[in-house]
Amino acid sequence: MNPSLAHSLTRALIVDDEADLRELLSLSLLRMGVETDCAASISQAQEFLAKHRYGLVLTDMKLPDGSGLEVVAAASAAANTPVAVLTAFGSSENAVAALKAGAFDYVEKPIDLAALKRLVTSVIKPLSKSKESKVSRETSLGPQILGSSAVMRQVRELISKLSRTMAPVAISGESGTGKEVAARAIHAQSPRASGPFIAVNCGAIPEALMEAEFFGYRKGAFTGAVEDRNGFFQAAQGGTLLLDEVADLPLSMQVKLLRVIQERKVRKVGATTEEPIDVRLISATHKDLARMVVEGVFRQDLYYRLNVIELHLPALDERPDDIPELAQHLLERICERHGQHITMSKSALDALGHLSFRGNVRELENTLERAVALASGLSLTAEDIALATGNANSMPVAAASESVEMNLTALAPENKTISGNNIPSFSLPGDLVSYMDNVERNLIEQALVATRYNRTQAAVLLGLSFRQFRYRMQRLGIK
Question: Are 141 and 185 in contact (CB under 8 A)?
């Protein structure tokens, strides 16, 4: 990085038609070690942006020659400079419009200097670190978003853009599409990467405990509150808070969450004062929030606050060409977790390509987990995939024929040759019922060994309910 560029990234441009406010902001930033240039109009701001690079642009929304959104557009065009807008207190519509236009954050008037400092240091400091730190951030892009399909390339490009803004992001997509993975990737590529990432499943918290869990509480606030405790918002201070399954929030909690987003302050249960928070919000759900707004079960004002920018993750059935790459990656992860080394055969990949994964990537991973547990060799086959899904018909025709022929060969009398068109007579080792019982017994025993005799997990591996699994164990005399 050359010296002039490093210097420009620790410099800010202030755009406001009020001379007193420009002076106040300039002095405040100078105390933080940030030099400034000041412009009173859009045209002056454009001149500065054409000549210099800045680490931050602060602009008012109402300017003599137009809207601050024009400054947002000009700064984005000029080396994608981060922009924060100044809005009048309570002008949430202006703030949302600016965030949608590309601003990364907003500051309400009258200016809270503490909030301004948090905003400035969240941008300027990451940009002015050493070259080594910059390279480290660029090579640590967080969780992998796999897939070579056109739609997944677009998802990765959008995640890269979203990481540069502070705007709330609403991630939509079916269950199992990787919404939390995408949220972690946004956080990891953002200036907040060094801060905490807190993921909260809104549907897993009892309504009576929600306020205390989200905002924290004071000692003695209620029975059992034996000490002060921070909530999710305080835990995510300086970082990112993911509200997973946000559609499950009850209306009473939606009202409280809306106030926190608007005021950027939280009040602990039992406290009399509020404390400021610096948290980037990402929400995720598999439900149709817009329809829930129409039905009156989700607040419209909260919907627009959370859904400033939307990121939609496609279902796995919409990108079948990505299945081989995903399957190879997931298999490596499963083997690493269990200390095994199992490869993927072409027939297994073909078998996976003929399946429909309604549970998306999560179902694909569970299928491979079962296949690894049930595999008899060091390479997954189409038969292993069929056993893992509980449906032999899921194998491609060629792979199924190969598997049947292999099994018949094992059953054939000694010195007899099996060919597709010339299958000689053979005898089962006992009657068919006994033979099938032995096959079922072997599968159950393998599943029990794989799960260290945890019957509940073994049932899951075989795609059975616990009652079905227990019945089969009793019927076959397995103890």
Answer: yes
The answer to whether residues 61 and 68 touch, using CB atoms and an 8 Å cutoff, is yes
Instruction: Express as a percent the part of the chain with pLDDT over 70.
Output: 84
What domains lie within the chain, and their CATH numbers?
A: 3-132 (3.40.50.2300), 149-314 (3.40.50.300), 318-476 (1.10.8.60)
Contact 288, 303 (CB under 8 A): no
User: pLDDT grade, residue 112 (50/70/90)?
Assistant: confident
pLDDT of residue 100: 77
Mean pLDDT of 422-437: 61
Compute the distance between CA of residue 84 and CA of residue 263 in angstroms, rounded to an integer: 17
pLDDT value, residue 114 = 77
Q: How many CB atoms lie within 10 A of CB 440?
A: 15
Residue recorded with tokens 């801060």: 195
Mean per-residue pLDDT of the chain: 81
Task: Provide the 10 A C-beta neighbour count for residue 68.
Answer: 27
Distance CA 332, CA 372 (A): 11
Backbone angles phi, psi at 308, to 5 degrees: -65, -45
Return d(Cα 202, Cα 284) in angstroms, integer: 10
Q: Crossing angle of helices 92-101/68-77, nearest 10°?
A: 20
For 443, counting Cβ atoms within 10 Å of its Cβ (0-12 exposed, 13-18 middle, 19+ buried), the class is middle
Phi/psi region, residue 296 (left: phi>0; alpha: psi -120 to 50; beta: rest), is left
